[in-house]
Design goal:
2 domains; about 0% strand; Cytochrome Bc1 Complex, Chain D, domain 2; mainly alpha
Length: about 180
């Protein structure tokens, strides 16, 4: 006879087993398992653009992807959603941002790409194609006044984009 504690433990074990070995053969996140250094480097996008995948996108296409995949959480304008504000909050380089958005806080456009690719959309992270991620990033950068609407972003172009708050961050690439 199962106690409630035993039932909970059994359910947890079954869920845990299912998360590790998906019956459809789909690779699942290896949560709690240590990655080898080469594995970390193979999935990381660096500030200089190393690790960016092939693909491209622009703000016009990005607006369509945003409307389908992002608007429910971040709002029509990127300012009025139930989750983080993505647009606005620009400040002078000597001021601290009162509102942390893509245009006022993120240091690297490549990091934005990496984040969107791994973590968005919220309910289905990692479901966007690389072209869709480039397009959404282009749209967000355009809405924040960082790039022109017709600029097509790809690995070469994205790594050249300078975000307004870049000088507040330091990385292994640019130590003082």
């Amino acid at each position: 006879m199962f106690t409630s504690r035993g039932l909970v433990a059994t359910a947890f074990a079954l869920v845990s087993l299912n998360a590790v070995s998906d019956p459809k053969g789909v690779e699942t996140p290896r949560l709690g398992q240590q990655l080898e250094p080469q594995e970390v480097h193979s999935i990381t996008v660096w500030p200089d653009g190393k690790g960016l995948p092939p693909g491209s996108g622009n703000a016009v296409t990005g607006q369509k992807v945003y409307a389908q995949q992002c608007q429910a959480c971040h709002g029509l304008s990127g300012k009025d959603g139930i989750n983080d504000t993505l647009v606005g909050g620009q400040v002078a380089p000597t001021s601290l941002p009162k509102l942390r958005t893509v245009g006022s806080y993120w240091p690297y456009a490549t990091s934005l790409f990496d984040y969107v690719r791994r973590a968005m959309p919220y309910r289905t992270p990692g479901s966007l194609s690389d072209d869709e991620v480039y397009a959404v990033v282009a749209y967000l950068l355009f809405k924040n006044g960082v790039i022109e609407e017709d600029l097509t972003l790809n690995a070469a172009q994205l790594s050249k984009v300078n975000l307004p708050n870049r000088q507040r961050f330091y990385s292994e690439y640019e130590l003082p």
